[in-house]
Amino acid sequence: MAEDCIFCKIINGEFNTEFVYENEHLVVFKDIHPKAPIHLLVVPKIHAASLNELDDKNLLGELLLGVKEVTKKIGLNSYRTVINTGKEAGQEVFHLHIHVLGK
Ligand code: AMP
Ligand code: ZN
Domain range spanning residue 95? Predict the structure, then answer.
């Protein structure tokens, strides 16, 4: 839990955000400003500012498995995944997340 991290607060349940999917490693919720009809964020429960700060191979694998699990759950076979790393690449929230965009 990092102070002043919006995604840590969401994970902590501070905003009553609905989780589309959750397991021991990650949560998935809807992006508040969707850029596609389906726009989900796959977010590790531990705080890592970006992909550059996460070296845990198991958790890195779990995040991609989480993408597969949530898309399977909602019946989305075709989708795009995006990870923005660093301000210049457009990262706005500095808690690692994978965008899942579909339809
Ligand atoms: P990025 O630019 O990769 O850091 O993406 C951050 C994403 O988080 C953006 O698409 C925002 O719309 C989304 N976002 C920011 N705050 C919230 C929130 N409270 N709930 C859901 N999505 C959020
Ligand atoms: Zn965080």
Answer: 6-102
